[in-house]
Specification:
Blueprint (H helix, E strand, L loop, with lengths): L1 E4 L3 H12 L4 E5 L15 E2 L10 H19 L4 E2 L3 E4 L6 H21 L5 E4 L12 E5 L3 E3 L1 H14 L3 E4 L1 E6 L2 E6 L5 E3 L4 E4 L5 H7 L5 E13 L8 E4 L11 E4 L5 E4 L3 E2 L12 H9 L10 E14 L2 E2 L4 E5 L2 E5 L5 H16 L1
Parallel strand pairs: 1-2, 1-13, 2-9, 5-15, 13-22
Antiparallel strand pairs: 3-8, 4-8, 5-7, 6-7, 10-11, 11-12, 14-17, 14-18, 14-19, 16-17, 19-20, 21-22
Length: 358
């Protein structure tokens, strides 16, 4: 028997992959409603892998996850759209800044080619085709898309259950006196549990389980991303991103939309007070100024508070780690720092876990 802790997109893909291989799998979820955590609070973007070091685990599982996700969507009728994405230089205050952005854009283009992304283009004066954008240059990436996340999660859970996976909701796996227990979150009762393997896919709380198993140098710090809803979408169904900052794993305030027609700007990057801190802390005016860097077609009054997500930003001995970490000790496998592009990478991460077990 295998126990997966966490029923988000990553934990559920692992359960699905192992169940396909004939394993008996139980998924433990501390919430009453699965999907209330990281998976239910993201923009639903399918990433191509353009941002990531070609030699990193993040790049490997993102590319593999993308390849596996599209056939899954087709098989289980999950709505998605490969709409493409603009990565744009945005406004520049000085000529030196403009030159630096141009260099960064071409470097990103080269990284995308090394990763193996096909049909990338450099657009000069992108306003010719996309008049609502700011910046002299942009990368056009046709591989990026969006998916209906609630439908995706539901289809994945149904696929798991059809293979015999059991979901134990409102249960939290805790370690007491060195032994694993299931704690009922409604009445506090607990029962001991044994398994061949425990897979820690607990997202924001994955460090707590890792520490309980002796991996004391890992720490998850909650990083908050706020999304503001926009009054109207852009004329074209296209994603618009700024060039990412070198100093952060966050991609900056960008424009996205969902298949229901709602449009959003976000996310930004702020340290959360705690792992359940979903409160807005950025005022609309500040957020609007960030959006103005890439788009010129919105007014401040077009923005209203939407939702807040939290990234599980990973640190090791106090130093920030940008890559995903999959590590094991005894009969545990720990998934740490699985933030963006976790939604895209989930099937690829499940493949890596399966390699360790099968």
């Amino acid at each position: 028997m295998i126990i997966v802790i966490g029923s988000g997109i990553v934990g559920s893909w692992i359960a699905y992959r192992l169940a396909l291989a004939g394993k008996e799998v139980f998924v433990v979820e501390k919430e009453k409603q699965a999907g209330d955590g990281i998976s239910g609070r993201n923009s639903g973007v399918l990433h191509s892998g353009i941002y990531y070091d070609p030699n990193s685990l993040k790049s490997k599982v993102c590319l593999r996850g993308y390849e596996l996700a599209l056939p899954f969507f087709e098989q289980f009728k999950v709505p998605y759209k490969l709409c493409g994405k603009l990565i744009i230089t945005g406004n520049s205050e000085t000529e030196a800044e403009s030159i630096e952005k141009e260099r960064a854009l071409y470097a990103l283009m080269e990284n995308g080619k090394k990763v193996g992304i096909q049909n990338l283009e450099i657009l000069h004066n992108p306003q010719t085709k996309f008049p609502y954008t700011n910046g002299k240059l942009a990368i056009w990436n046709p591989k990026t898309g969006i998916v209906d996340v609630p439908a995706y999660l539901k289809a994945l859970w149904n696929a798991c259950e059809s293979l015999g996976v059991t979901f134990l909701k409102n249960k939290k796996l805790i370690i007491f006196e060195g032994n694993p227990y299931l704690k009922d979150e409604s009445d506090g009762s607990r029962e001991s549990i044994e398994a061949e393997t425990f897979i820690n896919a607990a997202g924001l709380f994955s460090d707590e389980l890792a520490i309980s198993q002796g991996l004391v140098d890992y720490e998850i710090r909650p990083n908050k991303g706020e999304y503001f809803r926009l009054r109207k979408p852009l004329p074209e169904e296209v994603l618009v991103y700024p060039l990412p900052l070198k100093s952060s794993t966050a991609l900056g305030v960008h424009y996205t939309f969902n298949l229901g027609g709602d449009a959003y700007a976000g996310p930004n990057s702020n340290w959360a007070a705690h792992k359940s801190d979903y409160a807005f802390q950025t005022d609309r005016k500040t957020y609007f100024h960030s959006l103005q860097n890439i788009l010129n077609c919105y007014q401040e009054e077009d923005l209203s508070e939407g939702y807040v997500g939290i990234r599980p930003r990973l640190f090791f001995k106090g130093e920030s780690l940008k890559d995903f970490q999959i590590t094991s000790n005894d009969n545990w496998i720990h998934l740490l720092g699985i933030e963006s592009p976790g939604l895209t990478s989930a099937p690829g991460i499940a493949d890596e876990v399966a390699k360790l077990l099968l």
